[in-house]
Write a structure and sequence with these properties.
alpha/beta, about 15% strand, globular, 18 helices
Length: about 475
């Protein structure tokens, strides 16, 4: 039996109460939309508008989320990496980290090369399904065209689906990045018929939908590209101290943005993302790896999957540890495993992230790749076909015998999970290899992957067209 979705924190009646409460907030409290265009669109479709406040009727909320597909195909430049969002578990890059942790323990500000190195690892790591996004914000490229450099760099290093960067502050920057996708796929208008990327937008808790968020929804929905809505309230800081109050606020904010997306483009895919966190008032910090955060994520995932029947995304597999140590492994596994058992379909921050989403590590990327593989293997459960229920071997066995050379052992011995970084050798073999710990072995793997990676995965025509376009944008500005 597949174990995904088996962890549920709410009863059916409690799920309905969460939804009703979120709708009550939208209808009676409302959301502040800074965009004139968004407010006008909402007003035309039956919302009450008073200044910046938009009050959304429950009937419109329920009509809108039922228009969203439960699954959709996200295409890659290499079609063998196409993925279906809403089925199983998909992993995509971290987003927003501001430092890189070197193997020697020093932190440094990121460069475009650091971003490319991470994209190369994403290409290599079997358990990372999607590339691009903005795992780091490089300081050695012009701010005006940073999004173009990040997108081009990702396409050079990774042929999996490529996500748009986070920091596309203007409509112009968003449209320029989408132009690179037109170039990559060979013709104008290809995006309108295929899902190739998405834009992640984050309302500001409590109740504020910024111009940036509204523009992101509109521009990407008009091109028929999916919208990821990331509400990230923090208990006791930007939301009430109670976990359930924070969940309800988060869902209300995401539903309000979902409504706007459906009004712009009915049927455009929308993914709601659980990124809410426990505010640690002891240190005036927020803890993405807290057990309380895990409970809120699981509750949100259950609502997304079992109430709204939409793909469930979460910011999970994270840690507050500053280095790749026991704490990092413990918190990453706790966070990711619990979300996986709750049924998460799509995750961010699950590879490379340290220090409460402030730092990325190349070594942790390959360590996390193995961790994800472990969880995926467990969540799918044991194979229970008739052959595995057969008692023949057991009935024929002699007392005290072994099964090392039995037909089944020899036929199926390679069907079970094996580590990619962890050491399962004997103590003597481990000592003979230099007593390396997991982080050291991960570093050696990183060095090998980067040394063997090609300069670019793009063909000559794609490379020229993209660099020419970026140069054109630079000269125009």
């Amino acid at each position: 039996m597949n174990l995904a979705g088996q962890v549920q924190t709410l009863t059916k009646d409690e799920m309905q109460r969460v939804h009703d409460s979120a709708c009550k907030l939208l209808e009676e409290k409302g959301l502040a939309f800074q965009s004139d265009e968004a407010r006008e669109t909402m007003k035309r479709h039956g919302c009450r508008v008073d200044g910046e406040m938009v009050y959304i009727p429950k009937e419109l909320v329920e009509k809108s989320w039922k228009q969203c597909p439960g699954t959709f195909l996200l295409e890659a430049m290499d079609s063998k990496y196409n993925v279906t969002v809403g089925e199983d578990i998909l992993i995509h890059p971290a987003g927003g980290e501001v430092f890189v942790l070197d193997h020697d323990g020093r932190r440094h500000a990121p460069s475009l090369k650091d971003c490319g190195d991470l994209q190369t690892l994403y290409q290599h790591c079997e358990n990372v399904n999607i590339g691009g996004f903005q795992p780091l914000s490089p300081g050695d490229v012009p701010e005006r065209v940073k999004g173009l450099y990040l997108t081009h760099n990702a396409m050079q290093k990774c042929s999996k689906p490529i996500l748009s960067p986070m920091e596309l502050e203007t409509v112009e920057k968003k449209e320029e990045v989408l132009k690179l996708f037109d170039i990559a796929y060979g013709r104008e208008g290809y995006l309108e018929d295929h899902y190739l990327t998405w834009h992640a937008v984050c309302p500001n808790s409590p109740y504020l939908v910024s111009q940036f968020v509204s523009d992101g929804i509109r521009v990407y929905a008009e091109r028929n590209q999916p919208i990821i809505i990331v509400s990230a309230p923090m208990t006791g800081i930007t939301s009430p101290i109670f976990l359930m109050s924070t969940v309800i606020l988060s869902i209300a904010e995401m539903l309000g943005c979902l409504v706007y997306a459906q009004l712009v483009k009915p049927g455009v895919p929308v993914v709601m993302s659980a990124s809410l966190t426990y505010g640690n008032l002891r240190y005036a910090t927020w803890e993405c790896a807290s057990p309380d955060t895990a409970l809120m994520l699981a509750t949100s995932i259950q609502m997304f999957k079992h109430f709204y029947h939409l793909p469930a995304r979460a910011q999970t597999g994270v840690t507050s540890s500053k280095v790749c140590d026991f704490q990092a492994g413990m918190e990453t596994m706790q966070s990711f495993l619990f979300s996986a058992l709750a049924g998460v379909n799509l995750t961010s921050q699950t590879v490379s992230s340290l220090a409460g989403l402030l730092t990325s590590s190349l070594e942790k990327t390959v360590l996390d790749d193995e961790l994800i593989g472990r969880v995926r293997w467990m969540v799918k459960g044991m194979r229970l076909d008739e052959e595995r229920w057969d008692l023949g071997e057991l009935m024929e066995a002699n007392v005290g015998q072994d099964f090392l050379l039995s037909d089944n052992t020899l036929d199926y011995m390679h069907d079970y999970w094996q580590p990619t970084v962890s050491d399962w050798a004997t103590i003597e073999a481990w000592e003979a290899e230099g007593k390396k710990d997991a982080e050291q072995r991960a570093h050696e793997k990183v060095v090998k992957i980067l040394a063997e990676a090609p300069e670019t995965l793009l063909d000559r025509e794609q490379e020229k067209a993209m660099t020419d376009y970026i140069r054109f944008v630079e000269e125009r500005n």
